[in-house]
Structures are given as structure tokens and as C-alpha cells.
Model the fold of this input.
Amino acid sequence: MELATAFKRMQDRREFIKQSCSLCIGLVGLGTLAAQLSGCASLPVLKAESNNGRISVPITAFTEKGKVVIVRNAQLEYDIALVKISDSDYTALQMKCTHQDNALTATQTGLYCASHGSSFDLHGNVTQEPALAPLKKYRTEITNSSIIINTK
Amino acid sequence: MKKLLASLLVLFTLPATSQILTKEDSLSAGIIARNTATVISGYGSAKYSLETRSKIARANLDRVIVFLGHKFNNKISVFTELELEDGKVTGGEVGGEIALEQAFIKFQATKSIYLTAGLFIPRIGIINENHLPTTFNGNDRPFVETFIIPSTWRELGIGVYGNVAKLPGFNYSLALVNGLNSADFESGSGIRQGRFEGRDANASAMAVTGSLLYYIKHFRIQASGYYGGSAGLTKVEADSLQMSYGAFGTPVALAEADVQYQNKGLSVKALFTTVQIADAGAINRAYGSNTAEAMIGYYGEIGYNIFQLTKMKEKNLTIFARYELLDMNNKLPANGLFNGANDQQYIVCGLTFQPIKGVTVKADYVFRKTGDQNPALVINPFPVGPPFYKNKEFFNLGVGYSF
Done:
């Protein structure tokens, strides 16, 4: 009797594992499809030093198709999403959700909070609540070969 | 009087760095130079609902939540949410609920990783974490994420949340929380009544839950799972009830996957979930709850913000439609009884209007279709009890806010 129960439980677990695996395979498939569609799954991450609150990012950090570079600095609590609006216009956004301070995730199309679903466009405006306030912007300057982000 | 004086003394002797601000201009907006801040915010919703067949209407203050958070420094914060459901709670009367929805401390370990400890909401499904009335269409939260995934599902435990630095867009979570109480499972609401929600949880039963979440372009793709015990019994109790006990005894497993797309006013959501309770037969033998071995549910929703066609793109008037299926008899143990009333389909359609961010006015129509009710499970048949109809329609009007 106990053997039969154990066998049944094993079958049930197998079924659950089978269903879960099907789900995962489906998700991986969707992810792969989406990655194929985007042609670029990840964003460039640039570790940059700060010089008196000024972070220099070489213009070459932007690839031909990409318009977002993530800038990481050890002194800053949050990463910065540096967005190329045009050749003469760059926006530096603090990657901190204005809802509950969680670090944001960036893609080529926007910034997203994994915790509560808030999203922002590449100008820092809220596109999905619960966040209500736009993202903090840092001032930027363009030199011959780089973009300077002023974090002070 | 002494208490009042003590309170005033505390207030006037607070450190100069402490402030009470609204969320928009305080720690969330990051405009204050100091590292500490206290935040007050909240959300709420009220609804008028008309059931067309009986012409019975109901108005209810569904919920009001007050959020209070404090940032001790850049690494440590506390988050609390106190919820009142259904307007009021009166001693000795059924109805209404006052509960803590969240109360946890967050430790920011690195830029990419943080830990939570206390009463928190694990990342399972869409609504569980994102349940503010301004973030979903319709007055009611999706039924699949109410009865199959028992949102809002919070338990006591510890969790780790993070993102992968080398793969922007990729997030994960893993948590260890107290398990469920299978003694309270009910046919028709799945595992919902088995949640402890922070009240004297039997932590002899434990659960592990985790999620993988990936943002790519306008897609949000997630998979999450839960596996935990539901019988925190002693050996003597478990033997007497013929149930498996221990941390993962009488296990409940839940798997979920969802995809969301949002771009230029168009929003699409799809979610699939399944709950598996291998020992449902033992639970029924012990508690007579007619628990199912397997339940599945899924829904799909499409919406479009009409204001995207105008210059007022910051406003929101979304027209939406959602189809939901709940199969709560998907697999029954030998001692389970099929109840068609637990096989449900919903069509929900309506409008979500937001004159400004943080405020929503909702109007929707709900059509619910079920199978036949099993008469063997009806304790008070009609006319002693209310009549059962397989098809029901509701018109709902509601308001909500979040700040």
C-alpha cells in the first residue's frame, strides 16, 4: 500500500516537473525569439572613474545601433543610463526607481523596475505606475571625444 | 497626559536629519542630501457592483493601505504597509480585515543585490507584487491571480533579489518563507485560506520560492515557482492524520509563467499557472476539504490607451478585454468530488481612465461562466440558500488612487 502511495507521489512529482519544464522551455523559447527579434540582448556596461563628480564616457562606447550605455561608478549608489538622443544630445538618468528606490533595469527601449512594475521611457518619464515622479537626470556636456556626466 | 508629554518630547527631540515627506520629494526622488528619510504613502480603491440577474448591487470600500517606510542609511530601509479591507472591522462580526500587508527590512548588499527579512510579498505572478489599483485594468484583480495564485500572498521569511550586472534586463529572486496550512484549504479557493500572512505562522513547514525575470525591448518575461510544506505537524499528529510532516511534508508546488508587452499605448499580458498538491487525498481524509491534486489557470489581456491617438499622451483612457480560465478540478484524488462550479471562465472588458497619474476611474463588465454545481456539496440548497446560476454578469464602477 505504502509502495503504491510512494509510486503515485513519484508520478505526481514527475508530472509537475514535466509541466514546469514545459513552462521553462516555453519561456526560454520566447526569450530566444525576443532576443532574435532585438538582435542585441544586452547593453554595454562601462565602468568609469569619477573625477570630482565628473564621469567621462567615450563617444565610442555607443555602438552603431545602440543608444543606451550603462555607466557604473563605485562611488555612486546607483548606475546611470546614458542615453543618446542625437549626436548632440545625451541624457544621463539615475537608475533608481522613484517609487521605492529599487535599482532599475535598462533595455534599448526603456527602464524598468522589477519590484513593482514601474517603467520609464528613455527621457526618464513614467510610462507605467506605480512610480509617479520622473527619473533624476544628471547634467551632461559633450567634448570632442566624450560625454561628461556631472553627478554633483 | 504623561504619554502625551512623552510623545511630544520624542517628536521634538528627533534627530535633525529625520524628515517626514511625501514619497515624490523624499527618499524616492533622491533630492535630499541626507541619507535618512521617512516616507508616508498609500493606495486604496472602492467599487460599486451590480449583479444583473438578481439586480442586487453592492458598494464597498475594498481597501485602504497606508505605507510607512524609513531609510536608516543607504544600505538599510524598513517598509511597512497596513491594510484595512471592506471599510471597517467590528468586533464579533464577520467581514472586514485589518492586516499588515508587508513589514520587512531591506538590506542593500551590493548595487545589484538586496536582501529582505520579515513579512514580504514574493515575486510570483504579476499581481502579487504589482497590485496597486493604478497598475491593472478592471476593478477586480485577475481571478486566476486570486484563486490559483492567492494574491496578495505574503509570508514571513528571508529573500534575496538581484539583477545580473553583465546581462542588463535579467533579474532573479529566491526566498525561504514559512509554509502553508493545509488544514484551512477550501474547495473553490484552492490554497488561499492556507496562507498565514504573518500571523503566528507554523514555521515547521517551510517553502522555497524563486523567480527569473527578463526585460527585453518592450517585453517583460517571467517564470516563478513555489515549493513548500503544508503540514507543520508533530509526528504524533501527522501519524494520526496519516499525513507526511516536516519542513516539506504534504507539499504544495506552484509554477507560473507570464509575458507582458507594452508599447505606444498597447499593452498585452498572458499568464499561465498550475498548482500541484500530490497529497491532496491525505488532506481530504484529514480535513474533508475536497482539495484538488492539480489546478490550472491562465488568462490573456489586451488593452489600448486611446489618448495615444491624441496629443495628451500623458493621460490614460485604456479600453481592455481579458479572458480567464480557472480549472480547479484539473485532477482530483480518489476521495475528491468533482464540482463544476470550480471550473470557471471569465470575460472582463471595460475602461480605465486616469485623469492624472495616481488616480484611476474604472468601469467594467464581467461575464462569469461555470460548470454545474455538484449537489452533493451543497449544504443549504435553494430556497434555504441562494440559487446557483452557471452564468452571471456584473457591471462594476470604481475609483482608486496611489501616491
The helical segments of chain B are 2-12, 144-147, 235-241, 280-287. Confidence is low (pLDDT under 50) at residues 4-33 of chain B. Chain B has four helices and 17 strands. Chain B touches chain A through 64 residues (CB under 8 Å).
